[in-house]
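Comment thread on ticket #2218

A.B. wrote:
> Attaching the input chain for the structure job we discussed in standup.
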Amino acid sequence: MAFPSKARHPMNAAKRLGELPARKSPVPERLTDVAIARVKEMITSGKLVPGQRLPREQDLARELGLSRNSLREAVRALTLIKVLEVRQGDGTYVTSLEPRLLFDAVAFVTHLLRDHQMLEVWEVRRLLEPAATALAAARMTAADHLELADRIERFRIATTADDVMSADVEFHRFIYHCAGNSMLESVLETLSLQTLQVRAWRKATDERHRQAALAEHTQIYRAILARDPELARAASAMHVAEGESWLRDSAAPLPAVDGGTLMS
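C.D. wrote:
> Ran it. Output below, let me know if you need it in another format.
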């Protein structure tokens, strides 16, 4: 008996199937991960909204088809990242879900970054901070200008490294806020906190930098006061890039001399 087509010959089909790699069994999801995903879906779908109290544990577990232990673990995990809040004696609630609150978890993680990753953090700051400064230049009110002037004055009269660092942080924090984008504000606040230690160390050990920092911040202030977003963006970019350049130079190995290492 002739087969109508070689492609349909059962032996050919068997051969082709034999050439296929064996499928790996899918890794089963952890029950806690399933519980987290289902609670998250309730929030993203609008079934649970910010500030709303969750149903009783027993009822919610039944509704989601989960064990109470799995649901309890999910609530603990979501509480750690500020999605849920457990109020003793009152139940479990969805938090406000404000970016600043949710980014607390990100801030915790960034503190675990290794030293060699600091440059990457600074690169992200260089990409975002000029954009926030440009937005602030376009959106600040006359009252905001007065507050910014107060912050630049604190910078001018600062005499100790701690005072200069405090003035630096408050100056930038106010600009982030006035950019009018809560997500951008939260991201930059997180990045700023991550770079705080190295910036403070530089101000404590480099008198010339403290003087130069005042001039750089004054340029940013004047551009914002002139309501010139692009000038503000450029002044901010130069300011952040200078710090990044210093960090790269500090992290670079010293040049070799006569086959050895130049010691400082």
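A.B. wrote:
> Thanks. Noting for the ticket: Residues 253-264 have pLDDT under 50 and may be disordered.
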